[in-house]
Amino acid sequence: MRIATHVLAVLSLILTFASLASATSILGPKECIIEDGKKFSFSQGFTADPNAPSKIILTKFSASGDYKGGKLRLNNKIYRLKRFLRGDRIVIERDIQLEEVNKLKLVFKGAMGAALSLEIIQELPPTASLRSSPDLIVKGESSELSWETENSDECYLTPDIGRVDCNGSLLVTPSETTEYSLTAVNTVLDLETVSSTTVGVTLVVPSATLTAEPGQIERGQGSTLTWTSTNADDCEITPDIGKVECNGTRDVAPLVPTNYFFTARNTASGTTDTAIAAIQVQVTIPTTSLSATPAEIEPGQNSVLTWSSEDADVCSITPGIGSVECNGSMVVTPLGNTLYTFSAGNSLSGTATIATAGVEVGAVMVVPSASLTASPEEIILGESTQLEWATTDADDCSITPGVGPVSCNGTLIVFPQSTTNYILSATNSSSGMIASAIAQVSVQ
């Protein structure tokens, strides 16, 4: 009889668990057996979700005659068990209200070996956790989605994935920033929960570097531009160069200080990166000196012109002499009072300076003086500059190139098309002496 009762109890317990498959055990099943021939006592504290439906289940594993009675205290409520223990029912279930923190005590009496099973269950809603690693990828790369759920029997990933195992992982390769959502469903309780994660997708961004070596040159010298890039398929260098390979070198020889810009572009993403390299250009201005010894002679006598210069490679003396070495001396026999002008130029920098020395023949000669300035001295092609000049003891004046005779004191707006050395010649007609002044205008 006891064996048959036990079998019935097990079958009843199996059916009970089948009906509660969606529930979660938060205490037990606890097997309770009288081992000393008197009674069994069990106490335990536990935590629970106070909002979830809860049940307590007691199952007998012995014949009813083996039990004398008992009680169960749950928090402040007492359940008398004598009728159940002495009756024909094998399993009893009771809906209960749990608190967040609970205390239970079970006591029953009976024959040695009398046994009960105690369990408390809750119908807990499903939980879900969805993660992505990495959270940010470059377009074309992949991210791993991983997820865990509890209390669920169906799970779905969106967008474009569908039903999945309720615990697992998956590689995704979104073409744009995408929010993925995992829906965990408990079909028995008709409850669901959603967890989401976002995989950010960035465009391919190019990078660019540009160097100039050396970064400082004399006018006329060269420098080498070297550039590199990554993730670029369309590249250019400005000014004056244009389209280039996206990695390379080029020799340049700017005449003025120049900032070069290397732009690397990724045509698929429409993104760019720009690098800058500066080349400083030093302009060398020559220095000059000229003397006449003696400075006063009688008609038919000689004077020695002596001149010197630095940083010059093109030199001349006027009037009546022409090109000369940039350092030297010469014997002259002027027929009348003469103002000699020594001009020294640097062909690389395009600059020049002058020095003058007068030789007076016979009588005291009147020596004119002249000054010439340009403002501004540097312009961009198409812009203008103002020439301003002043003289003393001069009555015949002219400016070259491209101007001609002018008053011996004045101003003039000019529009040079290239770097130009403007020369003012001021003559005293009575002495025949000529004074010169030069102003350079650099055109970029």
Would you kindly provide a written description of the structure presented here, covering whatever features stand out?
This protein has 4 domains: 2-122, Jelly Rolls (Sandwich); 127-202, Immunoglobulin-like (Sandwich); 207-281, Immunoglobulin-like; 287-443, no CATH class. 5% of the residues lie in helices and 60% in strands. With 444 residues, the protein is mainly beta. The chain has a 5-stranded mixed sheet, with no helix packed on it.
Produce a short descriptive summary:
This protein has 444 residues and is mainly β.
SSE topology sketch:
Layout: H1 2-19, E1 24-33, E2 39-47, E3 54-60, E4 67-74, E5 77-80, H2 82-86, E6 91-96, E7 101-110, E8 115-122, E9 127-133, E10 136-138, E11 143-150, E12 154-158, E13 162-164, E14 168-172, E15 178-186, E16 191-202, E17 207-213, E18 216-218, E19 223-230, E20 234-238, E21 242-244, E22 248-252, E23 258-266, E24 271-282, E25 287-293, E26 296-297, E27 303-310, E28 314-318, E29 322-323, E30 328-332, E31 338-346, E32 351-361, E33 369-375, E34 378-379, E35 385-392, E36 396-400, E37 404-406, E38 410-414, E39 420-428, E40 433-443
Parallel strand pairs: 10-16, 18-24, 26-32, 34-40
Antiparallel strand pairs: 1-8, 2-7, 3-6, 3-8, 4-5, 4-7, 9-11, 11-14, 12-13, 12-15, 15-16, 17-19, 19-22, 20-21, 20-23, 23-24, 25-27, 27-30, 28-29, 28-31, 31-32, 33-35, 35-38, 36-37, 36-39, 39-40
